[in-house]
Every structure is written in C-alpha cells, then in structure tokens.
Automatic annotation (TrEMBL):
GO MF term (any one): CoA-transferase activity
Keywords: Transferase
Keyword Cell membrane in annotation: no
Protein name, as recorded: CoA transferase
Organism: Enterocloster bolteae (strain ATCC BAA-613 / DSM 15670 / CCUG 46953 / JCM 12243 / WAL 16351) (Clostridium bolteae)
A Pfam family assignment: CoA_transf_3
Keyword Transferase: yes
Cited SUPFAM superfamilies: CoA-transferase family III (CaiB/BaiF)
Length: 408
C-alpha cells in the first residue's frame, strides 16, 4: 500500500536537529525530501558522533530516507537551479537564524510568485520577528529561556536541562504539523502558507500544565524532583534490591487502587489524604510511607503487586534495557540506517504506526551531494551540471576527508 505523503516534494535546507526531525517524519510517510546542503561540508551533524568508517550515527538517525544535493545559495547559478526546483515542490523548510534566507534573496513572497501553492516553513529559536528574533539558539538555551530548566531538577537544587533535546523535538513536531496543514490548504485553495515555528513557543506549549497554573495563581513553580505539584504519590521509590520504580497516582480512584494493591488500607482511611489536593500538600509524608513499604520488597515483587492491582508504574530503564525491551522489540521501534559504504546503524524509528502500512525497518542515509545530478537533472542538462558541480563535489570530498582524518 502506498504511503500517505507519496507524491509530495519537500526542499529541505535544515540542519542539526529541529528541522531534520520535521522532515524525517515527512520522509518516513512517503514525501520525497531533498536535503539541500551547503558545500563543502554540508550538514554539521555529518561530523558528530563519528563512531567508525567516517559516518555519523547522528546524521543517519535524523536524515535517513532523504536525498542529498549540494547548492551554494550565494552562487547565482546555484540559486537559479533552486528556484527552478521550487516550481516542482510542495514545501520549503529551513531552520537558519532568522534573516539568513533573506540574505540569499529567498523569502515567501519570492517563492509564491514562482509557485503560488508553496508552503514555506521556518523553525527558529524565538520566531521570525520580535526582540529575540535575531538571537541564535540551540535546544539547551531555549530550555533555559522558556522556563523549562527552572522546574527541572531536584527540589531545592540548581536548574537542570532535560536529558533529551525537547525544544528541538517539539519545534520539529510543530513544524511538521504546520507544514502539513499548509499543504492541505494549498490542495484546497491553490495557495500555500508561510509557517513560522518558534522553539520557545513550542516548549511553552508543552509546559501548559505548569504555565497555566502560574498564570492563574501567580505562584512561580519550582523544581520538585520526581514529585508533582497537583497529586501524590508521584515519584521514584527505591525497593529492597536498590532498584526504583516510578509511580503515578493521578486520581482519587487510583489512590484507592494503589492502597489496595500494597495492602495498606490505613492510607486510604486517612481523611487527611482523601483528595488529590490534600495528598499533594502532604506529599513528603506520603513519600516516606511509600518508601517504607517498598523497602521491604525487591522491585520485581513490587511490580507484580502493582501490575495485579492495575496500578500505574514504570521501571526506570537505562538505554540498554530499553533497546532490549520486549515492547520495543515487538513494535520494531529500532530500525536500520544504511550508508553506501556498507555501514549500518541501529537507530530509533518512526513512532507512528498506521493500518495497512507495514513498518519500514531499513533506510538509506545519503552521502553528501549523492543525488545532485539526479535531482537537478530535472531542471538543467548534464553538461551544465557537471561544469557547475564536479569541482564543488570534489572539494566537498576533500573537505570531508580532512574533517574525518582529524576525528580519528
């Protein structure tokens, strides 16, 4: 069965993480994503986490399944070829610092004159306008600016960033959604959209629970470790074998079930712990009681009691445990990303499963400029392309070789 986005073409200027995660999702569901890389080195993630054989697991993870061409947008001949490609595309996606595409002479007004149905999506730290628009940004700095770090970490401790690149991922997801909505609009009306995604806006959206509470009460939230402001017990509790389980009791009904599963009727009978609000206010006392009971049993024993009692819990797994997790294996969450030189990386796959669509488990990660002649052959003759790009690709190969040699 065909994939939902087959027949759509995406011109992808993005690099690092937020943009590539957006276009990765589009590619996974059938869109032809043409990654446009600036010579001579292309996307910088080609040189991150180089494990062996001069290839990067980071690049493979985010760019599997895409084509790669090289274009120097400061070169008028290259820019002309890009504008010809725009006529064939459904969307252009970029995550440069705001103003960079303008320096190339590229903006939505220019693109829609060439192709009225084009969607032009930009991802940036803080948006395309406003007092912070010109600020450079990475995931960690946006976590700081958005307030994310201010509520993350141990109670009373220093602010801590999330272990994952949540600002990049949330920005990329929002950009994917915005791009798809723009494409749907273009199908209905013939006119595309300008899509402006701010990583800071995206992360604030993800913090809606804590942020809305602050906006209503004026009370600034602080780090609570693994606890939660609105209910208890929620946290990681250590068992007799030294392993901890993460517990979430989010409703009064779940509190009753939890007490029954652990055979602690006195907890449920405590009138001071009858409601979520009461338990949240007394969470330290509740945590002490839960730790006391958990310390009597090994983690497997506690997990068995909680599972039989239909409670909500999770084991605190490291990546080795996750990679071998029975549910991860069942859903084939880990896939292969293959390079032309024969190197294969095992990487996280697309998390979205759809009916009548077999999960793909093998992808190719393109070499820098690998598809230049194939793609640009649609808009120029081969003689012209060889004249323009043979020296460019030769210099790119030399630059890559020099970078890789320093990485060994």
């Amino acid at each position: 069965m065909s994939k939902p986005l087959e027949g759509f073409r995406i011109l992808d200027f993005s690099q690092f993480m937020s943009g590539p995660m957006c276009t990765l999702l589009l590619s996974d569901f059938g869109a032809e994503v043409i990654k446009i890389e600036n010579p001579p080195i292309g996307d910088n993630t080609r040189y991150g986490n180089i494990i062996d054989h001069e290839v990067s697991s980071h690049f493979a993870t985010r760019n599997r399944g895409k084509k790669s061409i090289v274009l120097n947008m400061k070169d008028e001949a290259h820019k002309k070829l890009f504008l010809e490609l725009v006529k064939t595309a459904d969307a252009v996606i970029e995550n440069y610092k705001p103003g960079t595409m303008e320096k190339f002479g590229i903006n939505y007004e220019v693109l829609k004159e060439i192709n009225p149905g084009i969607v032009f999506t930009s991802i940036s730290g803080y948006g395309q306008d406003g007092p912070y628009a010109s600020h450079a940004a990475f995931d960690q700095t946006v976590q700081a600016e958005s307030g994310m770090m201010s509520i993350t970490g141990p109670e009373g401790g220093e602010p801590v960033k999330s272990g994952g690149s949540i600002a990049d991922y949330s920005g990329g997801l929002m950009a994917c959604i915005g791009t798809l909505m723009g494409i749907l609009e273009a199908q209905k009306t013939g006119h595309g959209r300008r899509v402006d995604v701010s990583m800071m806006d995206s992360l604030i959206f993800c913090l809606e629970n804590q942020f809305s509470s602050y906006l209503m009460t004026g009370k600034v939230p602080r780090p609570m470790g693994n606890s939660y402001a609105s209910s208890a017990p929620i946290g990681a509790y250590k068992c007799k074998d030294g392993k901890s389980l993460m517990i979430t009791v989010g409703t009064d009904a779940q509190w009753k079930t939890f007490c029954e599963a652990l055979n602690q009727p006195q907890w449920y009978a405590n009138e001071g712990w009858a409601t979520m609000t009461q338990r949240a206010a007394d969470y330290k006392a509740i945590d002490a009681e839960v730790n006391r009971v958990f310390s009597r049993y090994d983690s497997d024993e506690v997990a068995d009691m909680l599972f039989k009692g239909k409670c909500v819990y999770g084991r605190i797994n490291d990546f080795e445990a996750v990679a071998n997790h029975p549910q991860v294996r069942h859903r084939r969450t880990i896939v292969n990303a293959n390079y032309a030189n024969g190197v294969t990386f095992r990487v996280p796959g697309n998390p979205i499963l759809m009916s009548d669509l077999e999960r793909e488990t093998d992808y190719t990660a393109a070499e820098l400029g690998e598809n230049t002649f194939e793609v640009l052959g649609e808009v120029a003759d081969q003689e012209t392309l060889h004249r323009l790009f043979d020296p460019v690709l030769e210099k790119a190969a030399e630059a890559q070789k020099a970078i890789y040699s320093k990485s060994k």
